[in-house]
Inverse folding.
């Protein structure tokens, strides 16, 4: 190792934490249905905000106890075009990079994945996998015990019973209060969750809303996603 690479080594880091890089010798062995796997298809050397969001997401998943792997299929643009075969197999075009696909537990690489079409932001990825793969990572504003009750809410016949169950937990911090408020409203109005989600999203997208408020709305969106 040269002096230069010795000096550079610690700052470059060994890996992107939480990200498993796949190629055509490992893809089918990892995406085999034994656990949920989310795969990003992108250029081999991705960079920029979307890349940073993905790295932040993968690190959070990696450090959580969620049974979910975050993987990269990095397609090289030149030479051997490594991994272009895998992207092609799932009909993913280079022009559409980055693309994200989620294989649920129980569906291996021979099954169709869930296509991600949301915002390329860390919290949006987290909400997606929690919702679709049913794993728990814990987003800002979310409370595990209340989240478990919220998940049953949509299909429950006895919603007031669930509200009572949630209240009986005796939690009273800001996050818990919001869950209880949402449960009360959703019990009375079946369309509340989708209306409130749309309303908050609109305010987050509004340039005139203050950053601190946007953060609060983001935490609320995280809570609402538990009810989806
Ligand atoms: C697997 O990837 C290698 C390296 O890019 C490539 O040479 C090979 O043709 C690929 N195999 C298949 C079956 O596509």
């Amino acid at each position: 190792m040269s002096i230069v690479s010795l000096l550079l080594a610690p700052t470059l880091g060994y890996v992107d934490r939480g990200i498993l890089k796949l190629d055509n010798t490992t893809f089918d062995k990892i995406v085999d249905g034994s656990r949920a796997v989310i795969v990003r298809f992108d250029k081999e050397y991705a960079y920029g905000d979307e890349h940073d969001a993905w790295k932040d997401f993968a690190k959070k998943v990696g450090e959580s106890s969620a049974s979910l792997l975050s993987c990269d299929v990095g397609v090289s643009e030149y030479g051997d075009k490594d991994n272009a075969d895998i992207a092609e197999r799932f009909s993913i075009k280079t022009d559409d990079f980055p693309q994200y696909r989620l294989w649920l537990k129980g569906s291996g690489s021979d099954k169709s994945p869930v296509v991600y079409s949301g915002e390329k932001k860390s919290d949006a990825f987290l909400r997606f996998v929690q919702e679709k793969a049913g794993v728990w990572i814990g987003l800002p504003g979310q409370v595990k015990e209340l989240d478990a009750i919220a998940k049953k809410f949509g299909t429950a016949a006895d919603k007031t019973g669930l509200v009572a169950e949630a209240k009986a937990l005796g939690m009273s911090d800001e996050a818990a209060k919001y869950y209880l408020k949402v449960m009360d409203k959703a019990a009375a109005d079946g369309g509340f969750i989708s209306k409130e989600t749309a309303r908050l999203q609109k305010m987050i997208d509004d340039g005139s809303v203050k950053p601190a408020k946007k953060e609060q709305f983001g935490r609320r969106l995280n809570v609402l996603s538990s009810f989806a």
Q: What stands out?
A: The chain has two domains: 3-133, 144-225. The longest helix spans residues 49-63.
